[in-house]
What does this fold into?
Amino acid sequence: MARAPVSTPQPTDLTLHQASRLLEVAFDDGSSFRIPFELLRVYSPSAEVQGHGPGQEVLQTGKRDVGITGIEAVGHYAVQPTFTDGHSTGIFSWAYLHHLGSQQQELWQRYLQRLAEAGADRDTPTVVAAAPAGGSCGHHGH
It folds into this structure.
């Protein structure tokens, strides 16, 4: 079995800040990030959000006030949060959490740009729209 590269930073501390809706993650490389719950939710690595391939991503809207009701360890490599909107299928690896934290500004800009292109904003409820051109992947909304 191939082992994960040693270069993947490991978290040393993980704190949910409910009032400010931030996940604080400190890594053994000395970095520390405060990642908004909303960013975690809209970039959830689940198939429900990411789809089944490039261009299949489902734009998440109306997540400004999303909370996290719980977070569970998945082995020694990831965490799985449960969000207040019921979403709980995203498994966030340490590398992905580090990516979200370190690329936070760019990811926010991309998200806001995608909202603008869709004519939506951070408060618009998510609507399960018709499948984009090219067919459906067979999912139905939750």
Remarks:
- Helices lie at 37-42, 47-50, 94-102, 104-117.
- The domain at 11-117 is CATH 3.30.2020.30 (NE0471 N-terminal domain-like).
- DSSP finds four helices and six strands in the chain.
